[in-house]
Every structure is written in structure tokens, then in C-alpha cells.
Amino acid sequence: MTTSAVLFDMDGVLVDSASLHVRAYERIFHDAGIEFPAAARDAVREGKRRAEVIEIAAPDASSAVGQALFDAKPAAVAQLLRDDANVSMPGATRLVRALADRGIPMGVVTNSVDPDLWLAAAEILDVMDVVITGNEVSSTKPAPEGYLLAAERLRVHPTACIVFEDSRDGWLAASRAGMRVLVLASARPAWADESVELVPGMDSSGVLALCLPGTTGEAS
Questions:
Q1: pTM for the full model?
Q2: Radius of gyration of the chain (CA)
Q3: How far apart are CA 31 and CA 205, in angstroms?
Q4: Looking at residue 180, what DSSP letter applies?
Q5: CA distance linking residue 64 with residue 20, whole number of Å
Q6: 215 pLDDT band (50/70/90 cuts)?
Q7: Which H or E run contains 197?
Q8: Cβ distance 10 to 110 under 8 Å?
Q9: Which residues 6+ apart lie within 8 Å of 82 measured at CB?
Q10: Does residue 142 have a cis bond before it (omega within 30 degrees)?
């Protein structure tokens, strides 16, 4: 079937958000005079939500301190993005721009509730036709609702969509939506078995041809 649209997860696929999130947590915890431990760093990289990370990092903190840390996090992320906007995953912006140049509808499906800031920093927000956030669905990944909603808004059949993902929950969500899923091997998915279609990375040779069969060459 001809590809009608290409959909992307955001964190770890389009943008390297985990590293910047860790730096933001380190900054606000340093300002509060509290150590940010390795277990909390791991929780960030696993995609744990803000309240969970703060509880792991400061289980004995008062509710007032915990709330202050919670409230300070978005501003810390925004400041880091302003200071260092190089957040794109290798090859991501180039691939997205190549697809846009060819008129391919695109969208982002993410459990994140504030993706626009990240996509703008990666200079790809302007070419995304739909952005589905965690606030717009009743059930986030691994439920397929977000991907099905993206297909509906793009007015394409789910089976004509290709999805780029890096997590098991994302792969399950897109697969359950009936979409072809390309999982980034660069994410080192230990959970992936022979049923998972892996691609080396967004910057790998031939990734554009996977999106658009019959296309030759790399994204430029």
C-alpha cells in the first residue's frame, strides 16, 4: 500500500529530550540544595512523569518543597531550550524536511503534554500537520487511541501510515492501530523480538526509501 502519512513519536525519535530533562532536574534540585540521584536520572530516561521523578529523587521532602520543585521544572526546561536549542535526534530534522518537500502529510503522537516547545526548537513544528498530545486522549500509549486520532485528523487510513517509534509502549500503540512501525535500533530496544521492524536510526541510509518505496537516495 502507498504511504499516505508518516507519524512520529517525539521523545527519543525526533528530539533528545531525556538529556535536557535530566539537566533541568539537576538545576532545580541544585537550587533547592538537594542531590539529584542516579535512580532519578534513570527514571527520567525511562519516561517517568514529573511527580514520580520528584518522589524518587526526594522521598523525604515536604509537600511544599515537592510542589516547588514540580512547579519549577517547566521554566527550567524552557530556559535550557533557549540556551541550547540543539535538541534534534541525528537525522530527524533532515528526514522530516525531506518528507515535507515531497508533500507527505506528517504528525506527532506523544504522551507529552507540551510538545510544541520541543518541536519548535528542532525547527520542525511548522511542517507537522497534526500534533496529538497526552491531554487529547483518554488512554495514552500503549493504547492506540493517539495514533488512530492522528490518522483521523489527517483523513488517511491507519494501514497507510508509517510510524517511527523507540519504545515498546509506542510500538504496541501503533501496531494496535494497524500501522507499520519502524523502531529505532539506536534506542537499544532489548524488548524487541523478530516481530519488530528495526531501522538503524533516523540518519541511516535508505530510511527515506522505507517511508516512500521507490524513492532512491538519502534525505537531503
A1: 0.85
A2: 18
A3: 44
A4: E
A5: 25
A6: low
A7: strand 197-199
A8: yes
A9: none
A10: yes
